[in-house]
Amino acid sequence: MPESREPGRPTLADATRGRILFGGDYNPEQWPEETWHEDVRLMREAGVNSVTLGVFSWAKLEPRPGAREFGWLDRLMDLMHTNGIGVVLATPTSSPPPCMGRLHPETLPRDEDGRTEWWGGRQHFSHSSDTYRRYAAAITEDLAARYGSHPALTMWHINNEYCTYDWGDEAAATFRRWLRQKYGTIDALNEAWGTAFWSQGYDGWHEVLPPRHAHYMKNPTQVLDFKRYTSDMLLECYLAERDIVARHTPHIPVTTNFMPLWVGQDAWRWVEREDVVSVDLYPDPRDPFGAQGGALVQDLTRSQARGPWMLMEQAAGPVNWRGVNHPKARGLNRLWSLQAVARGADAVCYFQWRQSRQGAEKFHSGMVSHAGEHGRTFQEVKQLGAELARIGEEVTGTHSGAGIAILHEWNSWWAGAQDGRLSCEADYPDVLRAWHRALWEAHLTTDFAHPEHDLSAYRLVVVPQLYLLTDAAIDNLVAYVQGGGTLVCGFLTGIADEDDRVREGGIDPRLRKLFGIRTLHEWWPLDAGETAECDGFRGTLWSEEIEADADAVTESVYKGGELDGLPAVLRKGRARYVSTLPEPGALTDLLATVAAEAGVRPVLDGLPARVEAVRRGDLLFLLNHGREPVTVEVPGTHHDLLTGATVTGEVALDRYGVAVLRP
Ligand code: GAL
Predict the structure, then answer these.
(1) Nearest of 425, 427, 403 to residue 413 by alpha carbon
(2) Are the C-beta atoms of residues 81 and 155 closer than 8 Å to each other?
(3) What lines the ligand 1 site, CB under 6 Å?
(4) Contact criterion met (CB below 8 Å) for 433 and 296
(5) What are phi and psi of 300, to 5 degrees?
(6) pLDDT of residue 70
(7) Which domains can be identified in the chain, with CATH numbers?
(8) What is the CB-side half-sphere exposure of residue 62 using CA atoms within 13 A?
(9) What are residue 613's DSSP bridge partners?
(10) Average pLDDT over residues 242-269
């Protein structure tokens, strides 16, 4: 697993130049040109210094095959430059113009039932289509040639939220190509996929298909490989465009925006090929754990970037794709934006600048809402812009590190989420969130890492659930503990190898030895809402019938029921195994205890429950996620960068209040 990005490439710092980028997706093609001038006036008023242009402009740029309409974009690039606003220029390749689908139906993806995804929505492109790729390369080439030396250009934004699948015929051909490269022979594929089961043996490559609609459960390794392949195909598309813009402008950083904790991309592989790691983040304003969900994505993105990252999209108010879409209460947009900065963002951007009046997203908020410049949304955006400008110089480029790493990996997620498992209640992202939440509530900042990464810098490593682990990952975990590291590991970890073949004894023998598990007899999954009484806490989701080795210490046992007296939490040296998901408070207590043993302290002691404290460089961010004002004890004297005040001993935070303290 490589751990370094391509050397010599530009970085986010080349675009920020000491300022926090502030702005968002700008879709001026939806508006008459008079509005553009009004937009620029308001952007300047709000301190906007960055807009992303062109994300959905393909039909405007290429209304007929091969035609180019650049005049409007020329005027916009100039307008932005004249007004001191940088442009993150997008390749428009996530939504092809209708003419492409009409003339080349093979560019349209098929779902697993064989249905075509037609134009009329968005993202109707087949990643495997040669024709799509040819058109995408051509428009990218022309954009790069035309705007590569434009002074407004600060960054390239390739495509948008790569997230498509394709089960069609061209995809079937590229799937076979990918599989041939991986396995070499059809016998090797048969072996890896376990096709002896249910008469699935393949006689030749021509018989192999993407996992299309089937009568009953599909071959899990075929499905797993299809997910790996899809991520790789999308990465190929990204790299093809990335290489074009990089050839024209080697000094301009390139990004593509992830969706938060999106299942479809093996993001650890992607981030090695990005100059700037960027993410879109839309916590539900009504979710009591929205702030923690946001923190999780921010921690993950910072870890992927190994430094400052870009919040590419968020909403200034409501989104319009949930069942019920709530606005952000006064102050919440500011709070969550500064939370991202605290956790390493050097760019705070939105979808989108001006709320649309037409189209599917007309009820999705913008920085300028339908209420216009006098509306609360824009007024709050303006205040935030001024504050970000105030703190930008001291914040940008600094790093917020952590002594703890949570291990997260996409292959494991994919393999563990298949049909045919014992419980659909043990949902991977939910389990991941639960463990992150426990650390968040203990005021312990955490990074994320890949299980094959060098973990030696961390005092504590937490594995919520990694169903599939490679041999290299298992050896890495064992070496980490042998090297003095502290490990806490949740259930359903180390069950399968890379081909989703169950390991000997149900859990890999190296891990059983590490945790002191002599035998795993049976898994006893719990129903939704059911709990398992344990010594000191209640477990949820899962329980296990395990037998401990003589040299292991049982820290908690199941009480009552079939598992009475059997270990719920097992420790051997610095390695702990937790065979259930303790209820939230109990998991927080467990992790706080283990972290203290490992020498990791909370950011501040005695913090009120809804107050988050994060260190970034020398700065201490305090964020009140509660609706009541609080006072926080902070030893020493500090300067609050937001208010300019000097504070000694304690800091008062309003509802949703924030302080950014320099010692
Ligand atoms: C993102 C997308 C934007 C916009 C936004 C709405 O997924 O990149 O174009 O659709 O969601 O929340």
Answers:
(1) 427
(2) no
(3) 160-161, 280, 282, 313, 319, 351, 361, 364
(4) yes
(5) -65, -45
(6) 98
(7) 1-48+277-397 (3.20.20.80), 404-597 (3.40.50.880), 611-662 (2.60.40.1180)
(8) 22
(9) 622
(10) 98
Q: Residue 2: its pLDDT value, please?
A: 46
User: Are 629 and 652 contacting, i.e. CB atoms less than 8 angstroms apart?
Assistant: yes
How many angstroms separate the Cα of 156 from the Cα of each of 20, 491, 505?
Answer: 17, 42, 49
Going 629 to 634 to 636 to 637, the CA torsion angle's sign is negative
pLDDT (mean) for 144-162: 98
Cα separation, 569 vs 580, whole angstroms? 8
Q: How far apart are CA 254 and CA 258, in angstroms?
A: 13
User: What does the DSSP 8-state code read for residue 328?
Assistant: P
Mutation pick for ligand 1 pocket among 162, 280, 328 (CB with most ligand atoms within 8 Å): 280
Task: Give, in order, the Cα–Cα distances in Å from 358 to each of 27, 55, 343, 363.
Answer: 12, 17, 35, 9
Calpha distance 483→318 (Å, rounded): 48
Residue 351 Cα to ligand 1 midpoint, Å, equals 6
Provide the pairing of β-strand 309-313 with 345-350: parallel
| Contact criterion met (CB below 8 Å) for 382 and 389 | no
Q: Detail the DSSP E strand segments found in 98-243.
A: 153-157
337 CA to centre of ligand 1 in angstroms:
17
Q: Three-state DSSP class for 638?
A: strand
Cβ 314 vs Cβ 328: under 8 Å: no
Residue 236 has pLDDT above 50, yes or no: yes
Distance CA 54, CA 90 (A): 5
Confidence of residue 4 (pLDDT cuts 50, 70, 90): low
Q: Within 13 Å of residue 647, how many CA atoms lie on the same side as its CB? A: 25
Is 321 among the annotated ligand-binding positions? yes
Which tokens is 182 given? 């991986």
CA distance 296 to 279: 12
> Quick check: helix, strand or coil at residue 366?
coil
- Token reading at 302: 């910072």
Distance 132 CA to ligand 1 centre (A): 22
Alpha-carbon distance 182 to 192, whole Å? 11
Say what the pLDDT of residue 400 is.
79
Say which residues have a Cβ less than 8 Å from residue 34's Cβ, sequence separation at least 6: none
Asked whether residue 413 is marked as a ligand-binding residue, the answer is no
Q: Whose CA is nearest to atom 9 of ligand 1?
A: 351
Name the residues annotated as catalytic: 161, 313
- Tokens encoding 609: 């429950």
Cis peptide bond upstream of 355, omega within 30: no
DSSP annotation of 472 reads: H
Q: pLDDT digit string (tens) for 294-335? A: 999 999 999 999 999 999 999 999 999 999 999 999 999 999
Asked if 344 and 308 count as a contact pair (C-beta separation under 8 A), the reply is: yes
Arithmetic mean of pLDDT, 68-93: 98
pLDDT for res 545: 98
- pLDDT tens column, 525-581: 999 999 999 999 999 999 999 999 999 999 999 999 999 999 999 999 999 999 999
Q: Whose alpha carbon is nearest atom 11 of ligand 1?
A: 351
pLDDT in tens, 630-656: 999 999 999 999 999 999 999 999 999
Q: Which residues of 491-511 are buried (b: 16+ CB within 10 A; e: fewer)?
A: bbbbbbbbebbebeebbbebb
Long-range contacts of 61-64 (CB under 8 A, 24+ apart): 61/92, 61/139, 61/143, 62/97, 62/99, 62/135, 62/139, 63/97, 63/99, 64/99
> Is it the case that residue 588 has pLDDT exceeding 60?
yes
Which atom of ligand 1 is closest in space to residue 257's alpha carbon?
8
Q: Please say if the pLDDT value at position 1 is more than 70.
A: no
In sequence order, what are the beta bridge partners of 658?
Answer: 623
Question: How confident is the model over 280-303, as a mean pLDDT?
Answer: 97
